[in-house]
């Protein structure tokens, strides 16, 4: 077992420089959902150069790809992401707000690190197969649009993950731990109301206000919130208010709602209730209502067998080897936030890993690997399309420290640290954890059999895609 760790560490270290260069390239491209042309090509080309068979444009998405190498089963899948977020451009490793280009996208969730580490892990597994003759196949799935659109959902809908023995991934974070809790299922729905325009002063009785309908729907949802379970969430934004003239009865209005629940079946039940609220608002205002599901992710179902294996591997690999220079830089990023902001950002990670919220006192970087806290009945506050993969195959994921404690994701601070020595060390550590987990899983058919039995028990009804069959990626 120790020999595996030594071999995998050496193989990852041999590709670390290339992986870090790929991270820089993807970070600089900073491309949004389904438009990750340069980023996907950089990863796919690098894998092809390593001897992987690469199929591009899978799932009807030009920036999705599948890279495969192996000599038979078991089949282990690694999930890579590389999309950026809007308006989070920021200079590399810079702890004060300085966009590279004002208003431009930036890697505020660190997916440049995510994809690059998965590349390094996949290549290390390939090299391990070549050196040892281990019978297995490693697949790297290039997954676009995790932030908006859900590339993995389209792949899951087409059965791309159905023959996997295990799926593994990671995410840049503030702490080092295997993710043993779920993530909320989410659905994005556009509700559109259509009425009849009229002069609001001289003939208000002749109009039928779509804007009134939208506002009544929101009021109905405010009351609905009192009667849903605490793990559910409803939030919205106006997409159309019918115009800017107050002396017009507005003939159109639309709302974009996000519906979240602990499990995907609960999300669909809440969706049905929301539709009744919307229908009631239309009835009260004598307007017409229609809705369109824009996107949807399933909840994440962690697999205990795989998570425990990943935890063992992570404990052996250890935390990123941060040095004094890294800690000095992290301290500058920590100083860009108030103590209250840092504590708020750490609330979720602490709850998800059963940590006291004072454990980080006096720290700016996490230098330990926290024990697995496996509580699938609990959920994190966010959502991810990794959840859809978890309904198709046994799945495990970890988080590795790649930013200062308390910075939080979807921030300019994360963009800056995603292209810094702090992020680099997190990338290399994550690659070792993923590669070691993949190899050990492939060597243990009995473990994979237990993982599959657990998965069947956890997802007894199989996969119900939250994305309608007619939905297609919007480029």
Describe it.
This protein is α+β, with helices and mostly antiparallel strands and 475 residues long. The protein folds into two domains: 2-183 and 299-458, Zn peptidases (Aminopeptidase), CATH 3.40.630; 185-297, 2-Layer Sandwich (Alpha-Beta Plaits). Helices cover 41% and strands 17% of the residues. It has 13 helices and 13 strands. The chain has helices at residues 2-29, 37-49, 111-132, 151-157, 210-224, 264-285, 304-317, 324-335, 339-352, 386-390, 412-417, 421-442, 445-458, and strands at residues 53-56, 65-70, 75-81, 137-143, 166-173, 177-178, 185-194, 198-199, 233-240, 248-249, 252-261, 288-297, 395-401. It has a seven-stranded mixed β-sheet with strand order 1-2-4-3-5-13-6, with helices on both faces. Strands 9-11-7-12 form a four-stranded antiparallel β-sheet. The protein has a two-stranded antiparallel sheet with strand order 8-10. A hairpin with an 8-residue loop joins strand 1 (53-56) and strand 2 (65-70). Helix 1 (2-29) packs antiparallel against helix 3 (111-132) and helix 2 (37-49) runs parallel beside helix 3 (111-132). The longest helix has 28 residues, at 2-29. It is globular, with a radius of gyration of 23 Å. The two termini are 46 Å apart. The mean pLDDT is 97.
């Amino acid at each position: 077992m120790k020999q595996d760790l030594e071999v995998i560490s050496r193989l990852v270290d041999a590709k670390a420089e290339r992986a870090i260069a790929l991270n820089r390239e993807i970070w600089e491209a900073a491309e949004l959902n389904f438009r990750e042309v340069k980023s996907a090509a950089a990863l796919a080309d690098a894998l092809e150069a390593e001897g992987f068979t690469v199929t591009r444009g899978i799932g009807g998405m030009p920036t999705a790809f599948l890279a495969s190498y192996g000599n038979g089963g078991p089949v282990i899948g690694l999930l890579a992401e590389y999309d950026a977020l809007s308006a989070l451009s920021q200079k590399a490793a810079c702890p004060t707000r300085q966009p590279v280009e004002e208003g431009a996208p930036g890697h505020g969730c660190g997916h440049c690190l995510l994809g690059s580490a998965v590349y390094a892990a996949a290549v290390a597994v390939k090299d391990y197969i070549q050196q040892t003759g281990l019978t297995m196949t490693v697949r790297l799935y290039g997954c676009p649009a995790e932030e908006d659109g859900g590339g993995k959902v389209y792949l899951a809908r087409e059965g791309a993950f159905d023959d996997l023995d295990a799926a593994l991934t990671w995410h840049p974070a503030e702490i080092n731990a295997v993710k043993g809790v779920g993530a909320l299922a989410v659905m994005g729905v556009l509700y559109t109301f259509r009425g009849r325009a009229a002069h609001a002063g001289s003939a208000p009785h002749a109009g039928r206000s779509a804007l009134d309908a939208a506002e009544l729907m929101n009021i109905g949802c405010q009351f609905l919130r009192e009667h849903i379970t605490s793990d559910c969430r409803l939030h919205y934004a106006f997409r159309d208010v019918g115009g800017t003239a107050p002396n017009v009865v507005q003939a159109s209005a639309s709302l974009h709602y996000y519906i979240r629940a602990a499990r995907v079946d609960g999300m669909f039940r809440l969706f049905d209730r929301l539709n009744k609220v919307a229908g009631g608002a239309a009835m009260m205002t004598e307007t017409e209502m229609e809705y369109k599901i824009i996107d949807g992710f399933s909840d994440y179902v962690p697999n205990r067998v795989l998570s425990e294996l990943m935890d063992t591997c992570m404990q052996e690999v250890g935390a990123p080897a941060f040095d004094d220079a890294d800690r000095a830089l992290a301290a500058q990023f920590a100083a860009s936030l108030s103590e209250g902001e840092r504590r708020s950002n750490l609330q979720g990670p602490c709850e998800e890993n059963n940590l006291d919220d004072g454990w980080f006192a006096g720290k700016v970087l996490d230098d330990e690997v926290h024990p697995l806290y496996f509580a699938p009945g609990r959920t994190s506050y966010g959502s991810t399309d990794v959840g859809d993969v978890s309904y198709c195959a046994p799945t495990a994921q970890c988080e590795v420290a790649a930013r200062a404690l308390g910075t939080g994701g979807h921030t300019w601070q994360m963009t800056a640290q995603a292209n810094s020595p702090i992020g680099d060390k997190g990338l290399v550590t994550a690659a070792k954890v993923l590669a070691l987990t993949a190899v050990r899983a492939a060597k243990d058919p009995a473990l994979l059999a237990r993982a599959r039995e657990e998965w069947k028990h956890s997802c007894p009804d199989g996969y119900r895609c939250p994305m309608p069959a007619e939905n297609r990626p919007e480029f």
